[in-house]
Amino acid sequence: GAGVSQSPRYKVTKRGQDVALRCDPISGHVSLYWYRQALGQGPEFLTYFNYEAQQDKSGLPNDRFSAERPEGSISTLTIQRTEQRDSAMYRCASSILAGGSYNEQFFGPGTRLTVL
Amino acid sequence: GNSVTQMEGPVTLSEEAFLTINCTYTATGYPSLFWYVQYPGEGLQLLLKATKADDKGSNKGFEATYRKETTSFHLEKGSVQVSDSAVYFCALSGTNAGKSTFGDGTTLTVKP
User: Which candidate in A32, A40, A68, A107 could, as Cys together with B44 as Cys, close a disulfide (CB 3.0–4.6 Å)?
Assistant: First the structure.
């Protein structure tokens, strides 16, 4: 079956522009997560959803970052007024349900964002 | 807050050597513990997991035991292959929390 997909796979933008990163989770997965991964480091949690409800956004670095999942399936991570420090790999994951033994997360291929 | 510390790499081994990658954690309560693997050019995928103390996760010849007394979840394999070359990430997830906390990854290179 289809795994988690993300688009675009690569995004190059100029400083100050807004970007929208898309994640399409595995069908039927309740929980969807966003992570950011810098080179040589592990994924860093940004936010996650159960269905359409944003459960935890404690990892969003500032108010330029926002995420939504309006119909409980596809999610969009938006970064406004991008800065060079936003350059990273952005990873999406989904799981059957958050927490406990159901928290095996399936990761997408990531979107490599470069801000010039 | 939660944190994961894993053995720094890179690690280079000869084929058929024994592998250990150390992982220790700090967390409240009873987290679930995971090892993820990232092969070159691919995304992260779950390698194994353990959800309670003394559980042993295993897959593809890899094993890790959830040791609450030492807050550790070390990854081991008795005989590595060239195809095991990848980056390995230790991670934890709280009992009721959705987010996972990852270590910084350990790069393993296995030479023939």
Answer: A107
Task: Render pLDDT for A67-98 as a digit per residue (tens, 0 to 9).
Answer: 999 999 999 999 999 999 999 999 999 998 76
pLDDT digits over B30-62, tens only? 889 999 999 988 889 999 999 889 999 999 999
**Helix (DSSP H) and strand (DSSP E) numbers for chain B:** 0, 12
Partner-chain contact B100 A103, CB within 8 Å: yes
Measured between alpha carbons, how far is A7 from A21 in angstroms, rounded to an integer? Answer: 6
pLDDT digits (tens, 9 = 90+) for A23-66: 999 999 999 999 999 988 899 999 999 999 999 999 999 999 99
Q: Which of A33, A55, A104 comes nearest B46 by C-beta? A: A104
A42: distance to nearest CA of chain B, Å? 4
Distances (CA, A) of A60 to A15, A75, A105: 19, 15, 19
Q: Is A100 on the interface with B (CB under 8 A)?
A: yes
Q: Which phi and psi angles does A13 have, rounded to 5°? A: -140, 165
